[in-house]
Amino acid sequence: MRHIVVIGAGQAGSSCVVKLRNGGFDGKITLIGAESHPPYQRPPLSKAYLMGDMTLERLFLRPESFYGENDIDLRLGVTVEAIDAAGQKITTSDGVIGYDELVFTTGSIPHKLPAAIGGALDGVHVVRGLADVDAMEPRFVKDARVLIVGGGYIGLEAASVAAKLGLEVTLVEMAPRILQRVASPETSDFFRTLHQGHGVDLREGVGLERLTGEGAVNGAALTDGTTLDVDFVIVGVGIAPATALAEAAGVALDNGIAVDGHGRTNVPHVWAAGDCASFPYRGGRIRLESVPNAIEQAEVVAENLMGAEKDYTAKPWFWSDQYDVKLQIAGLNTGYDRIVTRGAAPGPVSFWYYKGETLLAVDAANDPRGYMVGKRLIEGGKSPAPEVVADPETDLKALLKA
Prior knowledge:
- The protein is of the alpha/beta class.
- It folds into 3 domains: about 5-110 and about 240-305, FAD/NAD(P)-binding domain, CATH 3.50.50; about 110-235, FAD/NAD(P)-binding domain; about 325-400, Enolase-like, domain 1 (2-Layer Sandwich), CATH 3.30.390.
- The chain is built from 11 helices and 26 strands.
- The protein has helices spanning about 10-20, 55-60, 65-70, 130-135, 155-165, 185-195, 245-250, 290-305, 370-380, 385-390, 395-400, and strands at about 5, 30-35, 70-75, 80-85, 90, 95-100, 100-105, 110, 125, 145-150, 170-175, 200-205, 210, 220, 225-230, 230-235, 240, 255-260, 270, 275-280, 285, 315-320, 325-330, 340-345, 350-355, 360-365.
- The strands form 7 sheets. Strands 3-2-1-7-19 form a 5-stranded parallel sheet. Strands 9-16-10-11-12 form a 5-stranded parallel sheet, covered by helices on one side. Strands 22-23-26-25-24 form a 5-stranded antiparallel sheet.
- It is globular and about 60 Å long.
């Protein structure tokens, strides 16, 4: 009886083991998670869960009883200490486990502020896991002063929740504009206006020099010479793939755990999927930090563990909820040289990324039709002329038939 061990009980890990069982694999499955909770959704943590609109049980991807009922050995609160790839054994905090196939779904780790600038002070938080959000939730009281460091989607989503709950919010972004690494100036402009309209003190081109306080944070010094009094801090300055275990086991890295199109690493019987894995994409290699990628790649790995020999074809899409705006993103905008704007706030608006005449991606804010059409066009390799997309008289759905 083959034994498949999956390290990392998040979205990708859960998707992999469920696909194995649903696909007819009748061998032994072990899913190892360092947290004490069964696999859960992460996107609602900093939004619905933090605001009290979603209970803990609703966060769970499946009831904890599901795993036992499906003969999946779910080991929670267990850390992996070492991997012997040659001997196909894992040393964990509760013993040694042998495996026939091993899958890394270890996810990612948030960047933290250095202790030298106050990153270790009480009241300094990151947003990644359930414990992180539980730790900061009591601080979300009306008129509390929160400093958010980082103007990416994590920082902006935290700012939107804090502002909705009546906190005094200051957000600093070292780059010249929010979302600079991931979005167009037009998308940045849209969200800057949105946040400022909700009272967020948004400071671009300004970094954090240091946090102050004795034991607990109570202030911040910024790079423009200003100082702030703060009650707590949320750090949203990106994440890194969790690769330490894989690297120690001899697995090759390349912006994450490097896998081939099937999800295999360079080490026999070792696979990877989700945030931690980079894979071939259009002649290069990418790593996608998204729920859809975690699910779809993990399911392909599960199929290949059962002999499918199937290539993973990524269809990148993402989303972000801020205030009453749902941003939906289709495609990857890398290399764009032109933006076409369709619509205008406060109504539906979308930003279409082109490279020459080729459509690369769409950012759609409260514009589900724009998102749906853009996604299907990109996946189908179709690129309507930019001026056609910009024309408000154009029936977007008709573009799918062109």
